[in-house]
Design goal:
Length: about 260
C-alpha cells in the first residue's frame, strides 16, 4: 500500500483548523471546499455532566406507547376556542315564566317534560295544528286546543311556535286563542326572535298591543342584537312600545 504524501496528510485532532467560519465551509486537500453551515455540526465533544453537579440536565422527551396519548397531547397544545356563554339569567327567568304560565299544580312539575314538546312537532297532530294556525283556520285551532291545550307549545324545525306563525300572518283572533291557552308569549325561534319581534317588524300594531297586554318582554334581543323597538318601521308601533316601556319603568321606580 502506497503511503500518503506528506502534503496530503490530515491531522484529525485539528480538524477545526480546516473550517472557515466566515465563509461557512471546510477546505481540505482531500475534499476541496465544502460549504456546511456552522449550526449543523459540533467540532468539540460536549462536556460530561455528572448528576449533582448541574441542576439543568437535559430533559428527554417522554415517549408514549399509545398513539392516542400523542394525539391528545397535540390537541392540548392547540388553544381551544371559547364557547359562547348562555344567558343564564334569561334562561332562568324564561323557565320561571313558563312554569307560571302553565298554571299547573306543583305536584305535576315532575311530568312537565312529558307534557311539553321537547323536539319539533313533539306532540300528536302538531303538524296539523301548525298548518291550521298558518292558514288562519280559527275553528280548527279552537277544536284542537280544546282536545289538547299543550298544542299551544309545539314548534317546527325552525323553533317557530304557532304564536310566531300567527303573528307573521297577522291572525289576531288566533293569537287571542293561543294566549288564552297559555301559549308562551316570549318563545324564541332559531334567530332568537319572539312573536313581539315579528309583529313589531311587520307593523301590526293591534297584535303588538295584544302581546304587550299579555306581558311580552320588550327587552329580549334577537341573534342580531335587536330589540322589538329597534325592528319597528312605523312610528305608531314604536310609540306603542315606548309607552309600555315608560309605564313599566315608572312603576318599577315608584316601587323602589
Amino acid at each position: 500500500m502506497k503511503s500518503v504524501p506528506p502534503n496530503l496528510q490530515m491531522n484529525l485532532d485539528g480538524i477545526d483548523n480546516f473550517y472557515n467560519p466566515k465563509e461557512g465551509k471546510f477546505d481540505t486537500p482531500f475534499t476541496g471546499p465544502i460549504k456546511i453551515p456552522r449550526g449543523t455540526f459540533q467540532l468539540s465533544v460536549p462536556p460530561i455532566v455528572k448528576i449533582g453537579e448541574s441542576s439543568s440536565l437535559p430533559v428527554l422527551p417522554m415517549i408514549q406507547d399509545n398513539h392516542l396519548h400523542i394525539i391528545q397531547e397535540l390537541k392540548d397544545m392547540v388553544p381551544s376556542t371559547t364557547r359562547p356563554k348562555k344567558n343564564l339569567k334569561y334562561c332562568l327567568r324564561s323557565s320561571i315564566r313558563q312554569l307560571k304560565n302553565l298554571r299547573i299544580h306543583p305536584e305535576e312539575f315532575a311530568i312537565v317534560n312529558k307534557l311539553m314538546p321537547q323536539v319539533p312537532y313533539g306532540r300528536p297532530h302538531s303538524r296539523e295544528f301548525l298548518s291550521a294556525c298558518k292558514d288562519g283556520n280559527i275553528l280548527e285551532v279552537e277544536i284542537m286546543l280544546t282536545n289538547d291545550k299543550f298544542l299551544a307549545y309545539v314548534f317546527d324545525s325552525m323553533k317557530m311556535t304557532a304564536l310566531h306563525w300567527a303573528c307573521l300572518r297577522g291572525y289576531l283572533e288566533i293569537i287571542k286563542l293561543l294566549l288564552g291557552a297559555h301559549a308562551f308569549v316570549d318563545a324564541v325561534d332559531m334567530s332568537h326572535r319572539t312573536p313581539l319581534h315579528i309583529a313589531a317588524k311587520n307593523g301590526s300594531i293591534l297584535i303588538v298591543e295584544e302581546l304587550l297586554r299579555n306581558k311580552a318582554d320588550f327587552s329580549i334581543v334577537t341573534a342580531g342584537k335587536k330589540t322589538a323597538l329597534q325592528l319597528c318601521k312605523d312610528e305608531a308601533t314604536k310609540e306603542t312600545i315606548k309607552r309600555v316601556m315608560r309605564e313599566k319603568y315608572a312603576s318599577a321606580f315608584m316601587n323602589n
